[in-house]
Design brief:
Distance between the termini: 25 Å
CATH architecture of the largest domain: 2-Layer Sandwich
Shape: globular
Number of strands: 16
Structural class: alpha+beta
Helix content: 10-25%
Order of helices and strands: EEEEEEHEEHHEEEHEEEEHEH
CATH class of the largest domain: Alpha Beta
Number of domains: 2
Mean pLDDT: 91
Low-confidence stretches: 1-5, 32-41
Strand content: 15-25%
CATH superfamily of the largest domain: HIT-like
Radius of gyration: 21 Å
Largest sheet: 9 strands, antiparallel
């Protein structure tokens, strides 16, 4: 176990073993002046909104009417980013400049998953059982995509809060099932293979073991799942949630494991809300192995939560270093933010 306040302080770089890149930490800059308006995240909405295209019984832009649902409701996105009926690209236009430039059909399936019929709740406001039911519904979708001949990789994500650009506050996430392997999964699979070759052990298992040994960054844990702000976090409150048993995707997780996973997830997000005394915004994504017909026994499915705030009302903008150099510069230390959340008793 390491001490929560290490002597070499708050100015260093750390290696991100899954992305195989450096993250620079400069927490000594966190008190620098900020002359712009702070961004707050609030939810003020009725339980039912007749103008909401996600509320039960309402008509969507496609003209289709939502079911009068009482639990999880899933439908294909009316404005899909990928689609099986997206326009095909004629062969002569697929490769340009001797293959330097390439284009292809934006194939895939895009879905919307409504968590709850109420317009004004979040995953924090419903029971753990209902959160687990959401995860079970997502497991069912993964089973469908696993059997689909076109789909190779699935991104399940939620954007929560106006500050991250959410257009509708109704509690929901989205699914992008695509015909190629998602970039972050490609990076992690490469890291898994390289680490296995060099060390002879599994990188995910070693990360979890390291976090348990250090102990200072763990936010929540039960018999089946664990959550921590990793040593190499890029965002201030970036949190990883792992099932303790290794699963490549949601498909093989049992109902009991999904319940434990849901409980730890909700503990983390409730701590977010309590720490900021508001409905804390975040971007959440399920990192899962490809569904490309190959086995991926060394991949360990996990949930990544990336909140955009580094202090109350202050966003972490992807500015010059992140956008221009694809290199994260963090203004806070993982141990510092983990200590905030660890101190909160729910």
């Amino acid at each position: 176990m390491i001490h929560e306040s290490v002597p070499f302080g708050n100015w260093e770089k750390r290696w991100h073993p899954l992305r195989r890149e450096w993250v620079v930490y400069a927490a000594h800059r966190n008190s620098r002046p900020w002359n712009f308006e702070k961004k707050e995240s609030t939810i003020t909405a009725p339980e039912y909104d007749p103008n909401c295209y996600l509320c039960p019984g309402n008509k969507r832009v496609s003209g289709k009417k939502n079911a009068d649902y009482a639990d999880v409701f899933i439908f294909e996105n009316d404005h899909p980013v990928v689609g099986l009926n997206s326009p095909g690209i004629p062969e002569e236009f697929q490769n340009l400049h001797d293959g330097l430039y390439k284009r292809s059909q934006a194939g895939g399936i895009a879905k919307v998953v409504c968590y709850d019929p109420r317009h004004n709740v979040t995953l924090n406001d419903i029971s753990v059982e209902k959160v687990a039911n959401v995860f079970k519904a997502l497991r069912g979708e993964m089973n469908f995509f696993n059997r689909h001949e076109t789909i190779k990789s699935v991104l399940i994500f939620e954007n929560k809060g106006e500050i991250v650009g959410v257009s509708n506050p109704h509690p929901h996430c989205q699914i992008y099932a695509v015909d190629f392997v998602i970039n972050v999964v490609q990076k992690e699979l490469a890291a898994v293979a390289e680490y296995q070759k060099g060390k002879g052990t599994n990188i995910f298992s070693d990360i979890i073991a390291a976090e348990k040994k250090d102990d200072v960054r763990i936010i929540a844990e039960n018999k089946g799942a664990i959550a921590f702000i990793p040593f190499f976090a890029r965002f201030a409150y970036e949190t990883y949630v792992f099932p303790k048993n290794r699963h490549a995707t949601l498909i093989t997780m049992t109902d009991e494991e999904l319940y434990d996973f849901a409980e730890v997830f909700q503990t983390v997000t409730k701590k977010f809300d309590a720490n900021f005394q508001s409905s804390f915004p975040y971007i959440m994504a399920f990192a899962q192995a490809p569904v490309d017909g190959n086995d991926h026994p060394d991949y360990h499915m996990h949930l990544i939560i990336c909140p955009p705030l580094r202090q109350p009302g202050l966003m972490k903008y992807l500015a010059g270093p992140e956008t221009g150099a694809d290199t994260f510069m963090a203004d806070t230390m993982p141990e510092e933010k983990a200590a905030e959340l660890r101190s909160i008793k729910l």
